[in-house]
Design brief:
Keywords: ATP-binding, Membrane, Nucleotide-binding, Transmembrane, Transmembrane helix. The protein is an alpha/beta fold. It is built from 14 helices and 17 strands. The protein binds adenosine-5'-diphosphate and magnesium ion. Adenosine-5'-diphosphate (ADP) binds next to helix 7.
Length: about 500
C-alpha cells in the first residue's frame, strides 16, 4: 500500500490546481512571499545552470562569453564592445573558411541546445493543449513528466515518465500534434528500454533515410559490415559473426539489395580466403548467378541441388565442430585455414515449405535447423531472406539473433518476423513507403539490443556487383555434391520425375 502511495507521489507533474473546488484534506499553508522567493530561487538556479551548460555545450558561445567577460573586466564598457566586435569577426571568418566545422560545432550545436530548451519550456503547455493530461480526484491536472532529453543530430529521444490515466497509446494518438508544435517531421512513441511506466518519444527532424544513399561506404571489417545508414545519421554496422541473420520483407522491399550490401562488404575477405560464401537460390539462380565468381559453392535449379548444398554446409559445420572436439565455446576467429562460412539463402520458405517432396523438405529443415542451432561457434553464419513469414518459419525465428524487417504488409507479419513486442516498440514495417526500398527496422537479440532501430541499406548497383565479382573472385570454388542417398527412400516421385516419365 505504502509503495503505491509513494509511486503516485512521484509520477507526473501537477500543472494546475483548481482553487474553487472544496478540498476535504488539509492543505499545508505556505505564505505567498515564501512561495515566490522559492520560485525565483529555482528559476535563477535553472537559468545559471543552463547558461553554464550552454557555454560548455556550444564551445563557440562559451568562448565568446569568456571573451566578453574578460573584455568587460579588463577595460570596462569599451572592452566589452571590443570583445563583441572581435567575437563576431572570428565567427564570420570561421563560417567563411571552415563552413563544415562551423556548421557542426557552431550552428548545429546551437540548434540542438535550443531544441532542448524548447522541450523544457513548452512541455506542460503542449501536452495539456494536445489533451495528454489527466485529472485526479482532487482536480489536480497532471501531464507526463519529461525526465531527460538525449539530443541527436537529426532525431532526439525524450525519456518520459507516464502518469496515472495516461498510457503509451494516449500519447501515440497525439504524436501529430506534438510533431507540428515542435516543427518535427515525425514523433514516435517507443517502449522504454529500461523501465516499465516510462516511454521514449523519438522526435525526428530529418529523414536521412529518404535522402539519396551515400555513394560508397568506407573500409569494412568482415565481422561488422557497414551496409547502410541509421535514422540518427550514424552508419549501420550489421553484425555478421556470432549470429544468424533473418531479412524479411515483401517483394521489392530490398532483401536482395541488402544481401548484395553484405556480399560487397565481404569481398576483400572472400578474395583472401577468410570467408567462403555458400549460395542457395531457389529462384533458379536469378540473383546469385550474377556474381557467381564470389561463391565457394552455389546451388540453384533442382530441389535436390538445394538440399544437397544445405546438407553439405551442415556437414562442413559438424566436421569442424568435431575437429575442435568441443573446445570452442567462444567465437572462432576466421583465418584462411579456418574460414568463416556464410550461407546465403534467397527464400527460406522455398526450402522449408514449398518443396513438393516431403522427405526432401524434412531433410532441408533438419539441415537448416542444425546450422541455426550449432553453427555460430564453429563459424557458420546463415543469412536467410523471407518473404512470407508464415508459421513454418516461426519456430526458427528465435534462432536468428539478428533480424531485419523491411517493408511488410501488416503488424502481424512484423510480430512474426521481428518479435512479439517489436511492433509496439515502434517497428512500423507496414508504414514504410513502397518507393523507399531498403528501409527497415533491426533487432539484434544476440547483441542484447531488443529496441528496433530504423535503418536503410545502401544500394549496390548490378554493375558494381559484376565488377566486384571480377575483382575479388573466390580462390576455391567447388560444385554442389550429389545428394547423399543416406536415409533416402523414394517414397513418391517428385513432380520433375513425373514430367520426365511422361
Ligand atoms: N537499399 C536500397 N536503396 C535504394 N533502392 C533499392 C534498395 N534496395 C533495393 N532497391 C530497389 O528496389 C528494387 C527491388 O529490390 P530487391 O532487393 O530486388 O527486392 P526483393 O529482393 O526484396 O524483392 C531494386 O531493383 C532496386 O531498384
Ligand atoms: Mg530478391
Amino acid at each position: 500500500m505504502r509503495e503505491t502511495w509513494t509511486a503516485r507521489m512521484w509520477r507526473g507533474q501537477t500543472i494546475r490546481t483548481r482553487s474553487d473546488v472544496v478540498r476535504t484534506e488539509h492543505i499545508p499553508y505556505r505564505p505567498a512571499p515564501l512561495t515566490y522567493s522559492l520560485a525565483a530561487l529555482r528559476w535563477s538556479l535553472w537559468t545559471v545552470g543552463m547558461l553554464a551548460w550552454g557555454a560548455i555545450y556550444i564551445p563557440a558561445a562559451g568562448a565568446a562569453l569568456a571573451l566578453l567577460v574578460l573584455g568587460g573586466l579588463l577595460a570596462g564598457s569599451w572592452g566589452l564592445v571590443a570583445a563583441a566586435v572581435l567575437a563576431s569577426l572570428a565567427g564570420r571568418l570561421w563560417a567563411r573558411f571552415w563552413p563544415v566545422h562551423w556548421q557542426r560545432w557552431g550552428i548545429g550545436r546551437a540548434h540542438r541546445f535550443w531544441r532542448r530548451l524548447r522541450y523544457r519550456w513548452s512541455w506542460d503547455d503542449v501536452l495539456a493543449a494536445s489533451g495528454v493530461k489527466a485529472t485526479d480526484a482532487r482536480h489536480n491536472i497532471s501531464v507526463p513528466r519529461l525526465l531527460w532529453v538525449s539530443l541527436g543530430e537529426h532525431a532526439d529521444a525524450l525519456h518520459v515518465q507516464l502518469c496515472a490515466g495516461i498510457t503509451p497509446a494516449t500519447l501515440a494518438a497525439q504524436t501529430d500534434a506534438l510533431a507540428s508544435e515542435w516543427c518535427a517531421l515525425e514523433v514516435r512513441v517507443q517502449a522504454h528500454p529500461w523501465r516499465p511506466g516510462w516511454v521514449l518519444l523519438r522526435v525526428v527532424y530529418r529523414d536521412v533515410l529518404a535522402d539519396d544513399p551515400a555513394a560508397t561506404a568506407g573500409p569494412t571489417d568482415f565481422r561488422w559490415l557497414d551496409v547502410g545508414r541509421c535514422e540518427d545519421g550514424r552508419r549501420w554496422w550489421l553484425r555478421l559473426m556470432g549470429t544468424h541473420i533473418l531479412i524479411a520483407g515483401l517483394t521489392g522491399a530490398g532483401k536482395s539489395g541488402l544481401v548484395a550490401g553484405i556480399v560487397k562488404g565481404l569481398c576483400p575477405a572472400i578474395a583472401d580466403g577468410r570467408v567462403r560464401l555458400i549460395g542457395i537460390d531457389p529462384k533458379g539462380g536469378m540473383e546469385y548467378r550474377m556474381y557467381s565468381e564470389l561463391f565457394y559453392m552455389l546451388a540453384y535449379g533442382t530441389d535436390d541441388a538445394l538440399v544437397a548444398a544445405l546438407e553439405a554446409a551442415a556437414d562442413l559445420m559438424a566436421e569442424r565442430a568435431n575437429q575442435f572436439g568441443g573446445r570452442i565455446r567462444k567465437l572462432l576467429r576466421p583465418t584462411t585455414t579456418w574460414p568463416l562460412y556464410v550461407l546465403l539463402v534467397d527464400e527460406i520458405a522455398a526450402l522449408t515449405s514449398f518443396i513438393a517432396n516431403r522427405e526432401l523438405k524434412e531433410r532441408a529443415s533438419a539441415a537448416l535447423n542444425r546450422m541455426l542451432t550449432q553453427g555460430r561457434a564453429p563459424g557458420v553464419v546463415v543469412v536467410g531472406c523471407i518473404q512470407d513469414p508464415r508459421k513454418e518459419v516461426l519456430p526458427m525465428r528465435d534462432r536468428f539473433g539478428y533480424r531485419v524487417g523491411l517493408r511488410q504488409d501488416s503488424p502481424d507479419e512484423v510480430r512474426m518476423t521481428l518479435s512479439e513486442t517489436a511492433y509496439d516498440r515502434g517497428a512500423r514495417c507496414d508504414l514504410i513507403p513502397e518507393d523507399c526500398p531498403g528501409i527497415g527496422y533491426v533487432i539484434d537479440d544476440d547483441g542484447a539490443r531488443r529496441e528496433p532501430v530504423k535503418v536503410r541499406a545502401d544500394w549496390v548497383p548490378d554493375a558494381e556487383l559484376i565488377w566486384l565479382a571480377a575483382q575479388y573472385p573466390a580462390p576455391t570454388q567447388v560444385d554442389v555434391p550429389p545428394l547423399a542417398a543416406k536415409n533416402r527412400t523414394p517414397v513418391r516421385a517428385t513432380r520433375e520425375d513425373k514430367g520426365r516419365a511422361a
